[in-house]
Amino acid sequence: MPCYEIDGLRPVVHPTAFVHPDAVLIGDVIVGPRCYVAPLAGLRGDFGRIILEEGCNVQDTCVMHGFPGTDTVVEVDGHIGHGAVLHGCHVGRNALVGMGAVILDDAAIGESAFVAAGALVKTGMSVPPRVLVAGMPARIVRELTEQEIAWKSRGTRCYQDLAVRSLTTLKPCQPLTEVEADRRRFGLAGMRNPMYGGARGPRG
């Protein structure tokens, strides 16, 4: 993976974490156990510290950064969707940040809260636990159901499993020129989205 030291500080990646070779880690970045960091994610710890606690996932094209002296933190089982931007903020345990959302400085996302896709969480906003926030700027929409939180947890476990799958089986290859007969599919069932009726995992 592209890992860069700056001013004598280099990233730390736990052996059970998977960081894709096309992600970029710079400086004061700490990736905990069982994390998954997807292709083209940029974790830039050249001003403040970036911390991923155990079991987090940070998906494709996400950006994490912060001002000098700050920590940008995703707590245990945090789930950061494709293209999200986290800047000097704190994402609580088991929270979900949806695709394309932006979380600004000193904002705090509560435990098991959901930030909707495309939402803008303003500087200093405190999102309570177990609620859905949406909009630009983000506002509390409603409390989450137990079904929705359980769905999120299943999706996060899929990414924890993906870290293991990637560590053990991901490798460069040449593409086939034709589709094989009876081409198999991945066996990832049971992830229908209870919020939107989709057939895939967390929109994040």
UniProtKB/TrEMBL annotation:
<protein>
    <submittedName>
        <fullName>Phenylacetic acid degradation protein PaaY</fullName>
    </submittedName>
</protein>
<dbReference type="Pfam" id="PF00132">
    <property type="entry name" value="Hexapep"/>
</dbReference>
<dbReference type="InterPro" id="IPR011004">
    <property type="entry name" value="Trimer_LpxA-like_sf"/>
</dbReference>
<dbReference type="InterPro" id="IPR001451">
    <property type="entry name" value="Hexapep"/>
</dbReference>
<dbReference type="InterPro" id="IPR050484">
    <property type="entry name" value="Transf_Hexapept/Carb_Anhydrase"/>
</dbReference>
<dbReference type="InterPro" id="IPR011974">
    <property type="entry name" value="PaaY"/>
</dbReference>
